[in-house]
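Example pasted here:
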Amino acid sequence: MDCGYFCFNTTEPETGKHPKKSPFCFAEQQKRTFGAKSFTISIFFTIFAPSETYNQAMSDNQINENNYSASNIQVLEGLEAVRKRPAMYIGDISEKGLHHLVNETVDNSIDEAMAGYCTHIEVTINEDNSITVQDNGRGIPVDEHEKLHKSALEVVMTVLHAGGKFDKGSYKVSGGLHGVGVSCVNALSTKMLSQVFRDGKIYQQEYEKGKPLYPVKIVGETELQGTRQQFWPDPTVFTTTTYKYDIIAKRMRELAYLNAGITITLTDKRPDEEGKTRQEVFHAKEGLKEFVRYVDRHRTHLFDDVIYLKTEKQGIPIEVAIMYNTDYSENIHSYVNNINTIEGGTHLVGFRMALTRTLKKYADNDPVISKQIEKAKIEIAGEDFREGLTAVISIKVAEPQFEGQTKTKLGNSEVTGAVQQAVSEALTNYLEEHPKEAKQVCEKVILAATARIAARKARESVQRKNPMTGGGLPGKLADCSNRDPKECEIFLVEGDSAGGSAKQGRDRYTQAILPLRGKILNVEKVMWHKVFESESVMNIIQSIGVRFGVDGENDKEANTEKLRYDKIIIMTDADVDGSHIDTLIMTLFYRFMPKIIQEGHLYIATPPLYLCTYKNKVKEYCYTEQQRQAFLDKYGNGEDDDKNIHTQRYKGLGEMNPEQLWDTTMNPETRLLKQVNIENAAEADEIFSMLMGDDVEPRRQFIEENATYANIDA
């Protein structure tokens, strides 16, 4: 059965805890990471079987329902609520949640920097996988709190919704506004040590699972100023307690770009295989200027200038950096108080409005450009101005209104006008001062508009409903009989032969099959209308029910309201070509249909690499080389002797008969699925540009750094 745990957090939604494993559960071996660094993919699969205990519990519940009273109401005191429902506060308890603890702690230091009191932050991954964060800010206050009659340090560390962020006299703007950050870190750590350097003294307090071991005390003297936090994440809460250097480094690099002039030092004291440790220093003198160049470094620039503004409108500090490239996609990364608002919000609306209006006004007023537009017989739309655009927007808001604790979308209405005014003024000045660059941008806009109209015609020719073909579905599609999208899934299968086996082996009620011949178009390198002229691409788009330009919507925004399947599963051979096809299909979804990924619909099937057999008695499918070796160790003293043990290597899906394909790759009760998720938008954009773009050198470097080299006897 599919139990709904094909997700990041491998937690029970109600409790936030790791599900209890049954004899049929196989968890950790199913936790994987797929190729490109920007896609963190983890899955969990388990089978729950009713038991006597379960039946008894159900009976007890029915009795209790009739005796519901005040005694049933639980009041969780202190930080108990965090430990009871950790996922509510930090998102999840997997690798993502673990690294969120670091972010929450560092954010406090960043808030000190934003207030103008901190210049240097040191983050250390210690040998025992504990984390130390030290800054040179003011230090957390240690004097007695008037209301609670205990040290302010203890209040900050042990009380939810307590902190200096609520007092605008202390912090004009900050990322942490809920007062749950560092106290949550404390609650979810087996041990935490807080040290404050103030007034020449070292103040200290230690905690276990959020509870202080002793009152705040002075343990020495110092010339330092600031705060030092060290914590050990609780292994009973998190599915893993091993920190990954690269994940922390990405966030520290991002924070350095967003806060010009701040120095962040990241040190990993855990020795690698060669006994070496790592250290990086992140510092951006020019802030977003350097950030946009970093994000856009694998693309060909239309011109080398960065259109940059840093100003304050209506009391809102605004910083924007813009570059134009020769590509065909729009890449805008927005931040509010250093928080990546991946769903955009009012600041993004203001930016887009300013960009469209300013460039349109310039084009209309320039006689040469307006004549070109008239000659081309086109009408320019907003998305035409954003083709080939890479921008980073960072604003600081004193009272941000985020949609939910996840802070992915800004809701402050006053921000739209402020950003629009600031960007309009800066962009107008730039265009007037740089007529050559302005002409290049406008020429690209005209080309984009021409391509958009061509794309619309190509799209309409295939999207138009045809009563003779059942709504225009591709002939190759073997659809399922169920019409409830929530229960249906589609397999995008590499090759006609594997497609035939999949059609025979599938569950016809809920599973649809779309065979793909060869490799689909690399959409990273082509103009929009070429994409809709590609048969393979259009087969995918038509089959899943996505439409573009519906009811006057943005032509380039995919409408997923009539999505025909809940799971879209890429099923390819377990070889290099299969991985390439995976990446091509993911590029299509990322560039043209990102909502599919954001809403959690895109998966990658995992076919086995081997079928291992012992004396025709024991058969086991192995998905990794490690699993195969474990089988050999168990039954054959570590060797494949071809007498008692036989190993069959599957070169492709077509080698499996329908029954084998169903058992290993398609059966919801036994299969392994990897869910594609975008963790970091800037990082994902960079990865796709590097792997699928025209620039060869970064791709070669990536391969050299990440490839596993084989020893070949010539």
Summary: The chain has a mean pLDDT of 80.
